[in-house]
Structures are given as structure tokens and as C-alpha cells.
Amino acid sequence: MIDTAHPADTRVGARVAAGDWDAIAAELDEHGHALTGRLLTPEACRDIAALYDETDRFRATIDMARYRFGSGQYRYFTHELPDVVRDVREAFYPLLLPIARDWAAKLDKPAPWPDSLGEWLEMCHAAGQAKSAQILLRYGPGDWNALHRDVFGDMLFPLQVVIGLDVPGADFTGGEFIMTEQRPRAQSRGSSTTLPQGHGLIFTTRDRPVASKRGWSTGPMRHGVSTVRSGRRYTLGLVFHDAA
Fold first, then answer.
1. Parallel/antiparallel/unpaired status of strands 58-63 and 172-174
2. Which of 68, 80, 178, 206 has its CA at a distance of 20 to 30 angstroms from the CA of residue 191?
3. How confident is residue 187, by pLDDT bands cut at 50, 70 and 90?
4. Which distant-in-sequence residues (6+ apart) come within 8 Å of 106 by Cβ?
5. Across the chain, which distance is largest between two alpha carbons, in Å?
6. 145 has which bridge partners?
7. pLDDT digit string (tens) for 10-54?
């Protein structure tokens, strides 16, 4: 169980805020994804991963092979999020919000997101997206995640976060986070990122603005996970809109 009074948990908001947000915003603008510094201590990472076996904390379990999403398993938390998961999500929202609004302005799209995450989630629920979309994912040897987007309806936040909970090269091998970008009138471009334990990766949910000779165009993006070669890999997925 997570000890929510532990300093490793109470400082998570400060760790998120302490990031170099100018550099993060520039990286997101350039590539559509950006690593953060350490957000969670190794102890907090282990505690979150251990929640996977506490089935009453989750509203649904998805077998990826059954739905041809890849191989492996993930679980959606209920709205009763563990304190540390709730805190890190709430800490990210106001820092991602200016980037989201800037992207919407560049693409001449609506920016419906209010200053408060709570108010935005109420808007999601009013539109019929009322299910928690926070995810705990578990991969074993041979498991992988197909390229996809976490779009659950019309209410969409353009950025999301994944946090690594295990140590690459020690707890598992393989399992890189993959992104592909569909470029205008060109072949798609791919990238891979190894997630250090406790670090986050902010990435594009659906599409991002891409500079072109005619101004800004839409760059569609998808994400997935390469095959885990050995060990076990847990990650925490933070989504800033709820699911239908």
C-alpha cells in the first residue's frame, strides 16, 4: 500500500513544477514528446506497481491480445485514485494547459479547457465521458503495445503523460516507448524513448502543430511500446480527459 504521508509522495507536485518548462515546451513543439526529470522516488514507483494486484482499485482490466491491441495487460483505475496518482496528475494540468492552448491557436481550433482540471472533467462528464482513464500497464516477456491514440470521445486534451515504474536494463529489457508522426506529403517518422524509473514522458495525444510554408499544419501522431524482451515492465499512464 502507498503511504500517502511519505515525503516521496507529498513532494511530487513540487517535482513536476521544478521542471524546465521552457525547454519542455520547446521539445514538445519540435518533436511532439519530451522527457521530464525524476517525478517519483523508487519507493513510490514500487508502491504504485504493487497496486496492480489490488483489483478493487480498478474499474476494468484489458487483455491487449484479446482486442488485438498487442500483448500484455492494463487496468483502468476507478475515480478513487491513489493520492500520489491524483497529485501528479493535478500538478501537470496547469503546466500543460498553456501548451495545449498555444497548439489550438496555431491550428485555429477551439481551446475548451478551463483553468481547473476539476471543471474540465465536469465538462467531460456532461458530454458523456464519465469513466476514469488513468491506466496502470503491465508487460512481460514478449508483450508489446500497438500504435494507437487514447481518444475516448469528442472531449480531448492534446497532451498526456506516461511514467516509468521500473529500471530499464535491470528490471526489464526492450519495451521502449515508440511514437510515429505522419508528416505532410512525406513518409512517417518514428522515434523511441527509454523511460528511466520515476521519470515522465509528455507526449501528443492525437496531433500537434507542425510549421509549414503555408503556416501551421496538423501532424497526426500515434504511440505504442516495443516488444519487452525480458523481465516485467510497469508504467503509469495519465490522461487528462475521461472516457465514454
1. unpaired
2. 68
3. confident
4. 209, 216
5. 53
6. 70, 225
7. 699 999 999 999 999 999 999 999 999 999 999 999 999 999 999
